[in-house]
Specification:
single chain, 16 helices, 474 residues, binds adenosine-5'-triphosphate, alpha+beta, globular, 7-stranded mixed beta sheet
Amino acid sequence: PEKVMNKLVSLAKRRGFIFPSSEIYGGLSSCFDYGPLGSEMKKNIKDLWWTSMTRKHQNIVGIDASIMMNPTVWEASGHVSSFNDPMIDDKTTKRRYRADHLIENHIEKLRRDGKTDEAQRISSSYEQAADAEDSNKAFYDIIIAEEIKAPDTGSSDWTEVRQFNLMFKCNMGALADSAGSVYLRPETAQGIFVNFHNVRESNRMKVPFGIAQIGKAFRNEIVKGNFIFRMVEFEQMEMQYFVKPGTQKETFEAWREERFNWYKERLGLTPGKLHWYKHDKLAHYADLAYDIKFEFPFGIEEIEGIHSRTDFDLKQHQEFSGKNMEYIDQATNERYIPYVVETSAGADRLFLALLCDAYTEDVIDGEERVMMKFSPTIAPVKAAVLPLMKKGEMGEKASKFRNDLAEQFLVQYDDAGSIGKRYRRQDEIGTPFCFTVDHQTLEDDTVTVRYRDTAEQQRMEMSKVPEFLAAEIV
Ligand code: ATP
């Protein structure tokens, strides 16, 4: 698995999907830049999500809120006081670990080894510890009592457990005192909650309705790694759906089904690699929570969370802002603070899942190749135009063909090297179709289309190509 990740990281850099951030200065931990192909592909992911979540639903609209907000927002939401991770350091290596993850992994290992009773025993003390007044101390006690070791060194020389707040604080304006402090948002959701009435009134929305948003979020993650899986700056695609209290359960189930199907049928991830995970330990705001997980080469990990957030956020904002957050049902005159069901996905994690899922090594025409098996909808480059000869009438015809297609699609033009080499270059970036312009094209205005996955070829009228591509990119 590590080998696959290494190959992916190197392909991503070599072909311009993802670069380390500020690389010429040695980079910055957990920060990455999307290159020419990466930024196109990420845009395709976001467009697909946006279309599925807003335009296809009459009662969901989108917003684009600012990253910095009035700091009281984060007091109301609970992020200032409790958006913390419990950390513990290995004294010998100074490496830092999440205390809760160490315990969870230990329990999982016991279960795998068939020691279910022991796992159960630790699991119940872990649950108590999470709810304890001093959960830091309780986590520490479990780690010491169970002799849990550092995964990298096997050492068990631990520091105490401390809480780290995940929010980035910065100064606004000239004053460096706390009055000028603002946070970079750790989730996009709060921008939606504070705009509840603005969106409702301006767009005459009636409960149930949803507000969707795509935007950057920032978390001062201590434990990093696995390429773009966990970054300090990342992009979320969130939708908050406001419902009448009491109906959250059925709404939750409906969204659970819709989102799982989206991954299978629209984003096109391999269905067998998608899994559900039900949260037993719920966040302070939730009454029900499931994650959709994907089988990455480094493990089965979360790509989207679906949370029933109750009326926690709107209630908190009502209390902290002093503004009424109630909804009045015009038909029945009922008043209530709506409940919220949210779907929250990470654009970067979906990008990584697609990279991992697409990576294929096979043999075609007797030659080994690397192919990214992206769906035409997700693939950054939709087609390549390859003239058999660079110059003369053939080159001109191919250029014009490319330019016409470029009005609608991202198309590459490549006239350098053997045709086989050019196919390989396109296979490696996942271009689903190559169109070859040859001698026959000059006579009858047909081109050959070569399919990436099978390398099969077929003649097609040039004039039919735009229609063909549009049908493939759904
Ligand atoms: P994790 O347990 O992996 O830290 P989380 O449960 O804290 O994630 P949420 O707060 O539910 O994550 O955020 C929703 C989505 O945002 C996640 O499913 C993930 O796709 C994405 N996400 C969260 N944190 C990061 C990060 N540090 N880097 C990239 N994506 C992230």
